[in-house]
Amino acid sequence: MHNNQPPNEQKIPWIGGTYKGELLNGVPHGLGRLILPTGAKYEGSWQNGKPHGKGTVYYPGGGIYRGEIKEGRRDGYGQYRGADGKSLKGLWKDGKFIKSLEALKHKDIKTAEKQARRVIHIESLYFTYRNGKGIFDLNFQVNRGEVFGFLGPNGAGKTTTIRNLLGFTRPDDGLCEINGLDCWHDAAAIQKMLGYLPGEISFFDEMSGSQFLKLINNLRGGNDQNRLNNLIERFELDPTGRIRKMSKGMKQKLGLVAAFMHDPAVYILDEPTSGLDPLMQNIFVELLLEEKERGKTFLMSSHNFEETYRTCDRAGIIREGRLVAVEDVHSLKSSQRKKYLVTLGSQADIDHLRSAGLELGKKTRNTVEVLVSGNYDQFINALAKCQVLGLDVASQNLEQVFLKYYGQEAYPW
């Protein structure tokens, strides 16, 4: 187990200054601040006793560096501003300035901007269980202020991916980061900025809901009581009763309040509306969209496809541990086919629709499904030559859109 200690100010002889922050096995690891006797100061991320990740260096002469640091040296994208007001902004390597922002190639600028936007970064991630299942060569990122849907059937690898992001499991290979911090080594620091709702929530059943929320609040160092009260009222949660007597829906609301109440920057939600009635599902969607407007970032696993439409910007589709596509949700919706149920006067009318080149589906007596994707003129012209007794329409849902990634035989939703 990691020997994490709470933040405390102390002298660290081999550094030679005063350090306040997180420790791992007695050395700075996570988030912390160092003040040296010279007046120099560093605030930011640490790894194994050295500044590593994103941070800010204040130099004795008045200069300031903000940006990426690797093993104590300026390395990556950052900006140095001297006491005279002059600045260097661009790429650094081993402590040396190598290329200004203005001199960067267009591709380099786009890469730097992309890195600045991304919050969740997964690259070539592998994790395999003994039975051979797991996740394999997973690659995607979630940008700041984005709601990213993570979709797939049970057993596809969604929860395994989330466990790696939370630092519950150590990946076999690959990169897994949140806000530039390594999800395994910096799990404690990451969890402070994270709102997490598991797919299967475990509570202290003998506690009341109020006692549970108070416990979580105290563990996080105390948070805005007004926000907590607002969430309780919004979800119509009665937290006074014992958790073991609560319904599935009430427990789900308790988990949502616990995930949102400390106003985190990043949310990872595994089936967040499971067990909620339609009214509470709408309330959750409204809350999520409000948080998105505030710049919050979401990774959300869901089986509720209408919810995905309403909330997500993009969707990653996973099958048997491999990401088979990342799609813009609005593009998916606009590419939907329409399914029309047409009741006709005779079998001859059905034969005419088929001969007109239309795609027909199931047939019941004189009612037939007609699938239309943009070819409306063809559809209307064909109907005009038939005796139409009835016409109903139903949009194809997201489940059916995803059939092309799974095939009917692998479709358990």
Offer a quick outline of the entry.
With 413 residues, this protein is of the alpha+beta class.
Q: Explain this structure to me?
A:
The protein is α+β, with helices and mostly antiparallel strands and 413 residues long. It folds into 3 domains: 101 residues, Histone H3 K4-specific methyltransferase SET7/9 N-terminal domain (Single Sheet), CATH 2.20.110.10; 214 residues, 3-Layer(aba) Sandwich (Rossmann fold); 59 residues, Alpha-Beta Plaits (2-Layer Sandwich). 28% of the residues lie in helices and 38% in strands. It is built from 13 helices and 23 strands. The strands form 4 sheets. A 9-stranded antiparallel sheet has the order 1-2-3-4-5-6-7-8-9. It has a 6-stranded mixed sheet with strand order 15-16-17-12-18-19, with helices on both faces. The radius of gyration is 27 Å and the shape is globular.
Explain the layout of strands and helices.
Elements: E1 4-12, E2 17-24, E3 27-35, E4 41-47, E5 50-58, E6 64-70, E7 73-81, E8 87-93, E9 96-100, H1 106-117, E10 118-128, E11 134-143, E12 147-151, H2 158-165, E13 173-178, E14 181-182, H3 187-192, E15 194-197, H4 209-219, H5 225-234, H6 248-260, E16 266-270, H7 278-293, E17 297-301, H8 305-311, E18 314-319, E19 322-328, H9 329-334, E20 338-344, H10 347-355, E21 359-364, E22 367-372, H11 376-384, E23 388-395, H12 398-401, H13 403-406
Parallel strand pairs: 12-17, 12-18, 15-16, 16-17
Antiparallel strand pairs: 1-2, 2-3, 3-4, 4-5, 5-6, 6-7, 7-8, 8-9, 10-11, 10-13, 13-14, 18-19, 20-22, 20-23, 21-22
List keywords for this structure.
Histone H3 K4-specific methyltransferase SET7/9 N-terminal domain, alpha+beta, Alpha-Beta Plaits, disordered C terminus, Rossmann fold, six-stranded mixed sheet, 38% strand, 13 helices
